[in-house]
């Protein structure tokens, strides 16, 4: 399977809920909310800004490891392998943007530059992408870089913060009656990452845990409404993912010491009542 066949499979396809319809409502700083097939992210058909794809990788790798440990049918290992490739592509894109941010910072005396982490072996990643049928083009495309650069070097960002930033995301997954996974992704209204697909998420407020912030941001930015006929219900599982600190998580000049980001997965699994 490759990205072209995935496009054909999901063209005009919607989640199978047998008579139920999902209305996704965008709120706060989410411009739109979309239900996106997981495989669109896995195969690079749709890209996510910065390192948002990390938590998809972390969650599905965890499910794969749990299934292997318990000797039950679980996640396709190729899905995890493809997500690993997409994650490396997103790191490559991030490093490109960080270098552009540094070029602006170097023109402002006293501003600290980003220390670029170990570079991605992009030639190897592209070989792996080709072998696995992943489309790397959206991560190699520099079309959105200019807008991201402006948003990473505006007046607010140039007032650098000596501390590491903290944020939290909510990874919302819907499994329909066919067993197909769909991701609830917002289209960001503001930069950096403006008009790009991302999880609902934001900065951790004072006194909040990563989990508190993730659940608050989910409710602030998205709402899922079910309507229509159909004897269908869903179960919800909530999984806390371990916070990670990455120097290149969100390359805003203000956060030159990096970002520590946590996440909570809210997984809706639909079934017949």
Order of helices and strands: HEEHHHHHHHEEEEHEEE
Total tally of structural domains: 1
Profile the largest sheet.
Answer: 7 strands, mixed
Oligomer: single chain
Strand percent estimate: 25-35%
Which parts are unreliable, with pLDDT below 50 for 5 consecutive residues or more? Answer: none
If you average the pLDDT, what whole number results? 94
Structural class: alpha+beta
Q: Give the fraction of residues assigned to helices.
A: 25-40%
What characteristic shape results from the CA principal axes?
globular
**End-to-end C-alpha gap:** 33 Å
**Any idea what the radius of gyration is?**
19 Å
Number of strands: 9
Number of helices: 9
Keywords summarizing the entry:
273 residues; alpha+beta; seven-stranded mixed beta sheet; two-stranded antiparallel ribbon; 9 helices; 9 strands
């Amino acid at each position: 399977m490759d990205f072209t066949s995935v496009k054909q499979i999901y063209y005009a396809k919607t989640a199978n809920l047998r008579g139920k319809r999902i209305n996704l409502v965008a709120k706060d700083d989410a411009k739109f909310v979309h239900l996106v097939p997981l495989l669109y992210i896995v195969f690079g058909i749709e890209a996510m800004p910065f390192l948002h794809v990390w938590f998809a990788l972390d969650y599905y790798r965890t499910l794969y490891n749990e299934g292997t440990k318990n000797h039950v049918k679980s996640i396709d290992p190729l899905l995890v392998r493809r997500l690993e490739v997409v994650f490396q592509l997103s790191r490559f894109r991030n490093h490109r943007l960080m270098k552009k941010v540094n070029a602006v910072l170097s023109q402002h005396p006293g501003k600290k530059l980003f220390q670029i982490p170990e570079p991605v072996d992009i030639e190897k990643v592209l070989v792996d992408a080709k072998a696995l049928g992943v489309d790397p083009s959206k991560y190699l495309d520099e079309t959105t870089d200019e807008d991201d650069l402006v948003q990473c070097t505006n007046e607010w960002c140039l007032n650098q913060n000596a501390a590491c930033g903290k944020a939290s995301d909510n990874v919302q997954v819907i499994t329909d009656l066919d067993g197909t996974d769909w991701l609830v992704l917002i289209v960001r209204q503001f930069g950096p990452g403006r008009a790009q697909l991302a999880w609902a998420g934001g900065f951790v407020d004072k006194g909040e845990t990563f989990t508190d912030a993730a659940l608050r941001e989910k409710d602030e930015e998205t709402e899922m409404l079910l309507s229509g006929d159909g004897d269908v219900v869903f179960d919800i599982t909530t999984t806390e993912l371990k916070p990670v600190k990455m120097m290149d998580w969100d390359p805003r000049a203000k956060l030159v010491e990096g970002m520590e980001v946590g996440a909570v997965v809210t997984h809706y699994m639909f079934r017949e009542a």
